[in-house]
């Protein structure tokens, strides 16, 4: 297998696509559909070109090329991490067997389903973010938005390659469906709830890239462990691109908090709305919303499907190979969140059925690290107030707590009280209207909107005032 991308091909790839004419033709016939989807559902703001990184290699040192490119000419391609000939399945009943290069017949439907669910999220986020370019706080941010968008487009390609390459006619049909479903659509919505929510403003975008993209990171981490080697290698490379999406969210919220602290000090008030900032109360409400809908993406606390996926070797745990256990988990137990006699509690279940909880736990710890980071900015700015993650029972639509209403402290509330108090915890129309009122585009080089601090660093060593985007 060649490692460097072949850019002489219509579809750049490192999978020797030209050796498989049937697959190449199938993908080439999907390509125009992808491009028309991008035209109608991708970034709405017209641009001449954008300073983007394009994957050119999967090697350890340097896999990306940076340059100004017209977005429609972006080379969406197919890249799999390098194959390890020795790779063996690390968990489940096939532990120790060589990783599969083809789809085992008995797991065909399950693997296809896993790939479709992952694949569905990729174009969904592009759709959700379609109009954000119109209100970008700087050219730097605009460039980052577009970078995230083209890479989510590439992730769709990555999943479509697997569907076309390994799942025959059904795979090709699923690939079509991935372009037909649309975020927020009445008739054919995206599969998962959080991907049908709006991303109407940049605070939402940063929260989305922090909390919801981070769910993606954890899901990809479990698929990277898959016994199906092409899926594993695909996800391994996608994770490299995800790191930038995480950075956009983390530093985006850093910069909002930093600016809010400046305004609080300058005007000696918590209510910075009147001074063109986003109050910490509002930041907390947006955080509450995005965190709680992202927790729903992990599914129920217990799941026999996920137990079966694990046992079959389809989907592992986060950092499977670093876990110090037998990687089969047949006799193990785990404590999971549950409603016991109407109270929020924990209950012990077999480790295998509790795997969603295991993954969610890793995710929550990671989310907490961001909150700690933002709190250090508050502390350094001499602000006593702290941000925090709400209780896992707060605002849930999926799992053990879907049927109750709980406060961010994890106190169960009667319906009426929830209704009365939820405006203190989730963004209200007033909060959203204020945030939206701040969303005015700043397209001048080196300038930044007043509600956010500039970044500490530019992209790829370029300064903040670099010409990251040329508008049309
Ligand atoms: Fe992605
Ligand atoms: Fe992402």
UniProtKB/TrEMBL annotation:
Keywords: Oxidoreductase. The gene is boxB. Its EC number is 1.14.13.208. This is Benzoyl-CoA 2,3-epoxidase subunit BoxB. NCBIfam families: benzo_boxB. GO terms for molecular function: oxidoreductase activity. Coiled coil: none annotated. It is an enzyme of class 1 (oxidoreductase). The lineage of its organism: Bacteria, Bacillati, Actinomycetota, Actinomycetes, Streptosporangiales.
């Amino acid at each position: 297998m060649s490692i460097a991308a072949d850019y002489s091909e219509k579809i750049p790839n490192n999978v020797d696509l030209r050796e498989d004419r049937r697959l190449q033709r199938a993908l080439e016939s999907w390509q125009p559909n992808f491009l028309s989807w991008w035209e109608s559902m991708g970034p709405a703001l017209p641009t001449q070109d954008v300073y983007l990184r394009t994957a050119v290699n999967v090697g350890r040192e340097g896999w990306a090329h940076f340059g100004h490119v017209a977005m429609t000419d972006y080379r969406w391609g197919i890249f799999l991490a390098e194959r390890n000939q020795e790779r063996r399945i690390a968990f489940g009943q096939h532990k120790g067997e060589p990783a599969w290069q083809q789809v085992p017949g008995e797991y065909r439907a399950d693997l296809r389903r896993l790939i479709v669910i992952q694949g569905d999220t990729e174009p969904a986020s592009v759709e959700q973010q379609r109009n954000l370019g119109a209100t970008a706080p700087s050219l730097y941010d605009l460039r980052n938005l577009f970078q995230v968008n083209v890479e989510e487009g590439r992730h769709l390609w990555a999943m479509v390659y697997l569907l076309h390459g390994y799942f025959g006619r059904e795979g090709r049909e699923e690939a079509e469906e991935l372009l037909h479903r649309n975020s927020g659509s009445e008739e054919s919505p995206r599969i998962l709830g959080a991907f049908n929510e709006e991303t109407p403003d940049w605070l939402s975008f940063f929260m989305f890239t922090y909390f919801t993209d981070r769910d993606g990171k954890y899901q990809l981490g479990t698929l990277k462990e898959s016994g199906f080697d092409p899926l594993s290698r695909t996800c391994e490379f996608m994770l490299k691109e995800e790191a930038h999406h995480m950075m956009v969210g983390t530093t985006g919220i850093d910069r909002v908090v930093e600016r809010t602290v400046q305004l609080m000090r300058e005007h000696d008030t918590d209510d910075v709305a009147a001074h063109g900032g986003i109050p910490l109360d509002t930041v907390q409400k947006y955080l509450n919303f995005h965190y709680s809908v992202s927790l729903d993406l992990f599914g129920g606390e217990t799941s026999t499907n996920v137990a079966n996926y694990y046992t079959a070797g389809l989907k592992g745990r986060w950092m499977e190979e670093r876990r110090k256990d037998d990687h089969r988990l047949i006799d193990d137990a785990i404590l999971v969140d549950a409603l016991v006699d109407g109270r929020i509690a924990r209950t012990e279940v077999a480790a295998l059925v509790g795997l969603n909880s295991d993954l969610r736990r890793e995710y929550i710890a990671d989310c907490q690290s961001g909150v700690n980071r933002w709190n250090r900015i508050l502390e350094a700015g001499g602000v006593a107030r702290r941000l925090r993650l709400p209780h896992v029972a707060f605002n849930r639509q999926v799992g053990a707590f879907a049927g109750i209403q709980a406060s961010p402290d994890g106190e169960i509330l009667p319906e009426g009280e929830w209704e009365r108090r939820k405006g203190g915890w989730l963004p209200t129309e007033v909060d959203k209207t204020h945030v939206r009122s701040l969303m005015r585009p700043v397209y001048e080089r080196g300038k930044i909107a007043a509600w956010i601090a500039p970044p500490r660093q530019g992209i790829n060593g370029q300064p903040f005032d670099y010409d990251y985007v040329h508008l049309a």
